[in-house]
Give the backbone structure.
Amino acid sequence: MTHLTTKLALTALIGAGLVIGSIAEAAPKSGGVLNYVVGSKIPSYDGHVESTFGMIHPIRPFYSTLIRVNPSNPADPSDFVCDVCEGDVPKGEEGGTKFTFKIRKDVKFHDGTPMTAHDVKATMDKVVFPPKGVASNRKAFFRAVDSITADNDYQVTFKLKFPTGTFIPALALPFNFIYAKKDLDAHGYQWHKKNINGTGPFKFVQHQKGSFVEGVKNPTYHFKGQPYLDGIKAISAPKLAVRVQAIRGDRAAIEFRGFPPKHRDDLVKALGDKITVQESDWNCVLMMTPNHKVKPFDDVRVRRALTLAIDRWGGSKYLSRIAIVKTVGGVVYPNHEFAATPEELSKLAGYSKDVKGSRAEAKKLLKEAGVNLNFELHNRGVDQPYKVVGTWLIDQWKKGLGAKVKQRVQPSPPFYATLRKKKDFDVSVDFNCQSVINPIADITKFLSTAGNNYSQGGDAKADAIYAKLEKSADPKEQRALIRQYEKRVIDDAMVAAITLWWYKINPHRSYVKGWKIAPSHYLNQHLDNVWLDK
Amino acid sequence: MSKYILKRLLMLIPTLIGAAIFVFFLLRLVPGDVCELRLAGTGLYADPAEIALCQKNLGLDQPLIVQFFDFLWGYVVFDLGDSMWTGFPVVHEIGLRFELSLQVAIMATAVAVIIAIPLGVISAVKQDTWIDYVVRTFSIAGIAMPSFWLGILIILGLLISTQHFLGEPWMPPIDYVPIWEDPMRNLSQLIWPAVATGYRYSAVATRMTRSALLEVLREDYVRTARAKGLIEKIIINRHALKNSLLPVVTIIAIEFAFLMGGLVVTEQVFNLNGLGKLFVESVGAQDFNMTQQLVMLVVVIFVFTNLFVDVLYAWLDPRIRYS
Amino acid sequence: MTPPSETAAAEIEVEADFEELAEKKPWYIRTIEMARQQPLAASGFVIIIIMLLMAIFADLLTVFPAEDNDLEYMLAEPGTIHSDLELTFLLGADQFGRDLLTRIVYGARTALFVGFTCAIIGSTLGLILGVASAYFGGWFDLVVQRVVDVVMAFPLIILALAVVATLGPGTQNVIIAITIPFIPQCARVVRSNALAIREIPYVDAARALGFSNARIIMRHMVPNVMAPYLIMLTSFLGQAILLEASLSYLGMGVQEPTPAWGLMLQGGAEEFAESAPWVAIWPGVAISLAVFAFNLFGDGVRDTLDPKLRSR
């Protein structure tokens, strides 16, 4: 078979898969156990502390959250629905500073105790106002929260210090597991690291360390009729190839993080319509961060030359065939209303379709700065997509700037130590990966004060724009401010550059129904609406 | 003899302490720690105060020397501590993986012996004939193929061939069931890595069988037996093989010890939840405590195997005298 | 400084032992004889020579750039013709459109460089340590042997992994990581051989005559442990190449865009094993063949130098 016909056949099959996936939603069947593979390992079970999908994928189904991303429409970044609350997600009262949630009366913990507003309050207190010495990894998302009160057994009120667009998305974070107040009172704040007592669709059965986590249907789940599955089994498989093969050999039905395109093609080719493929833009982006404290990258002209030399459109076309990156975008997740349109994008440095023109400009800038580039690209020792993109970037700079670039790859822990502590890199591959799409919170990485801005530089003008943005309540104004901010941080001041946004590809066994791809591997993982068509 | 064993046991103490120092400081030379990885490693926002808190809870803020003596003290009070990644006791974490690694090591050793002894004998008996060359080529080929590459080919081969012949692609299970719970499922998972590894490890044992046998065949009593007109087969079975087994047993025992902790790559390819995979994961996560205890476990297995082999040697071979 | 006749005789005797290895025949006749006696070793040697030539003349043997991406030809099948350069991708192209044959030829450079550097440095340091340990004995020996015990108690891959984790990946650090575990292995074997030499009276005699330690070690001890040294050295060659490939597979070896076989497998073997099998097969074949050749050759060296030597 020639290349072209193979490609056509594959495209047809993928197309067919998508169609099959969408028409068979009609009548969910009950029963069966969902086996899925997870590529990362479980630290503790405490969602308030951890941040890896290695914990979310196996543990999230045991818990509920107050609100969540709509499981029937997870692609929409601003569609949130109630989980243990009742009715619609409340709109802010009193100028967007007061949010009152009615709590469902039929929610029960797995040990049988009913869940009330007091449990929600105790949980959110732990997340937002943890006592000294108690970890809560995302309390900064709730900076605006002033108080949380349980008005009665079935109503919780949040009061904010100032109105902000980041509050509701933060509340929908999949990490905000609801714990029982009595567990917190009786066992303390560390108990949930090793014990599970939630209100989620599945009850914890066992965790064989390093191998799998098993759960069984929770018969008293508050969404009646759900979950459809009798049980779940999350199997650990750190090697990508093993995860792909597991789906092919039907040892697992699905993997929720994402596969590179060639593996999708292999699966579709081998299994035809037994495989369904779901694809989505991904709320993760690979960045290229120069170290502003190292010469010659202290010179904004050199930094701009680095980003000008990158042919993003070409990269998107080719790399999307071999890596989990695809979409060209600015600082905001591409499908969000706050994201730059193609016209807006094309005005930014390095986003023009006239690659030759950009590169000529880049060379001019380098000449002005009197610099011959010869440096080291610091990268993370992970194939997808870091090393693939790293190899591509090196070639882009060689072609575009005549730069000699070597690559220094480090395993994750020293990679972070270099970025955060040693800071002895020239230019680093860097990334920003968030769960719930919350643009105003997600773009803080470029602020000069941000803990995860590893460039050692920033831009006073951008910081000032952001201060206005954070307190703005008007979406139109917010969008305009984000455009100004974007122009500063990835162009005029070139704090750090965006390379390509990730692209999530989830090929799975066609008998898995009800699960819809979300723009993040952290989202839509409670699995209460998944069923097996066997 | 008992004096010899005692002396050897005493000599293990500096080795073990040396290994402890070595692994402790080697790990801490790597910048970064488990807290940064856990909290910031996913690219999600992480609060520096949270990272500091996590370090404090794990004792990583203590001076190195204090941490080191804590580590040694653990052996005195028989408390190996908790994994820094999961928070569960190290003993608990290692337990299940040990079972799997032990089983794979035993099976692989069995495979290696089944391959090595006959091949080594044939190769020695037919020394410098084409049969000898074929056998040696076969066994060296095993050691030459990178184990991960072989593993990938095996799994892919299984998937493609089962789909071709049976209609449905089949692959070995990817999660472990102990052999007494479900022997079929257990074996259908572990037989592949055992064969792949056993074949690899048979190379050295084959060579050893061949050269040991050749050496014995040249000795006087074998010549005498030949002169007496004994049939070649009997000479080899009765006399030569038995006497040449000692070095072969040594090699097999030492390889077995290596298999217990050294199956780092194979376990990745076949998704085996054994000590090698745990080691790679613990190193990758900077889980110092876990890595230290794992390395010490492997070291202990290794030095005791060595001791066992030496004692066995002394006991079996009257020519060897230990002072 | 003429040694008395007794010592000289012993010296000559020992040296004569060694002369046996090199009989006084023209080298080509010796080579042919060796090849006839050891056909496997000879074939291994031929493969090694071919690889060496590939490594040395890589620039002349290849027509494609080894490191430049050419994304138009991403994963091109073997036999695809590059329309601008009018050249053929004989073994196909990898995921960045780089000619696979070119990268395999250049990869021989990396493999042999890593292999030889690690084997020579590792076994030579082992030789020095082993001989010194045997010669000086006493406390020095005891301490060195305990350190050797410690290092040897770690499985090779675990030790190499730990060292690379400490130093960070990269060609130079990979070499260090592979070399360190080799040193004690060689030192142990050399020491046990050297101990036997040390007991021979002429060493005492030489010492009594006031020869310097260095002279005794270099003139008398070292030549007599050349056999185990060479055996260890050749057996390290294959191991080093295999270890480099394994480290690369675990993401801790040589890094892009440097062409290296293990790295080519790591980036391509799994992801493209089915859709573009040439990316997965050829580097694997190259590694296997190289290690195979070094092992065959090593076996030959072992058989020639010391059929009784038992250590690995």
